[in-house]
Amino acid sequence: MKLIFWGTRGSIAKPGKGTIKYGGNTPALEITSGSGNKLYLDAGTGIHALGNKIIKNNSPREINILITHSHWDHIQGLPFFKPMYSKNFKINIYVSPNNSFNPEDIINRQFTSQFFPVDKDVLQAEIEIIKLNESMNFQINDFQIETVPVHHSKNTLGFKIQNDNKKLAYLTDNEIFYEGELPRLNDIEEKNKDLINFTKGVDLLVHDCMFAFNDYAQKIGWGHSNNLSAVLFARAASVKKLLLFHFNPEYNDNRLDEICADTRNFVKENSIDVDFELAIEENAYDI
Q: Which of 72, 85, 107, 156 has the smallest C-beta neighbourhood within 10 Å, fewest atoms?
């Protein structure tokens, strides 16, 4: 499998000269299987550029998008996803309900006059909205997919995707639980057993890193993680590689470089056997 990030930012897009290195768009990811099939994760602002690429290449005709949850930063790119306006495409959008809103409500309400200048009647693609639930196991083309509830707002899902004997886990907007000022491995193992078991031994874990460790104390309970707890979680789950993403919009490239350096020091000083990087927009990663 190959993975490309079309958005790495959390909460709100942050374009500008300060976010050139790591990117400023909100989450959208593209996965390509060994046989060339495509799967897309989330539909933040990054899906706009991804849609332009799909239109240019005129492929694939059938598009499958998995949405982790309906918070704005994960769906706000859909009205600007050009394949939705072309009859050449069939688009399957997989999303879980959110409280009183069913999946159709979540998507269709974006195309109402309160939020968008035209309604969904202008859409030309064949669009199907498919309901997801926690703890599902299903297949799309040659991708085997599992869902899991994560530590965020109700109905937020994580995904585990298997293809060609390789496994990718995608846990965006997930809070790694621990007590005390500094995260400790045994505490993380005890309080996050559900997600550690889900990600155990995956080849690549893409995980929330909304906050630097020093900022996290003021954001406990917000449903996001910090850089130090993320590497300890990856160690507890014995993942082969960790990619941190969903960066705070307040963090520019220099701040993210500092977070990367702080994380490397923490890993070295505590002899934590974890291979990690910070995700970079439009970079391709082999799994």
A: 72
Q: Is the pTM of this model over 0.85?
A: yes
Backbone angles phi, psi at 206, to 5 degrees: -100, 120
Query: Tokens 């989450």 identify what position?
Result: 27
Average pLDDT on 75-88 reads 96
- Is 229 in contact with 236 (CB distance < 8 Å)? no
Instruction: Specify the number of domains making up the chain.
Output: 1
User: Cβ–Cβ contacts within 10 Å for residue 218, how many?
Assistant: 8
In this structure, is residue 285 part of a structural domain?
no
Strands 38-41 and 28-32: antiparallel
Average pLDDT, the chain: 95
Q: Could you identify the residue written with the tokens 């849609």? A: 51
CATH code, 11? 3.60.15.10
Report yes or no: 157 and 150 within 8 Å, Cβ to Cβ.
yes
Please give the structure tokens belonging to residue 256.
Answer: 């993210």
181, 151, 176, 184: which is closest to 242 by C-alpha? 176
Quote the domain boundaries for residue 110: 2-279
Query: Could you tell me how many helices (H) and strands (E) the chain has, helices first?
Result: 7, 14
Return the closest-CA partner of residue 171 out of 160, 183, 179, 162: 160
Domain assignment present for residue 52? The answer is: yes
Distance separating alpha carbons of residues 247 and 195, to the nearest angstrom: 21
Q: What is the DSSP string of 184-252?
A: -HHHHHHH-HHHHHHHTT-SEEEEE--B-HHHHTTSTTSS--BHHHHHHHHHHTT-S-EEEE-B-TT--
With beta carbons less than 8 A apart as the criterion, state whether 287 and 3 touch: yes
**What digits encode the pLDDT tens for the residues 154-197?**
899 999 999 999 999 999 999 999 999 999 999 999 999 999 99
287 is a domain residue: no
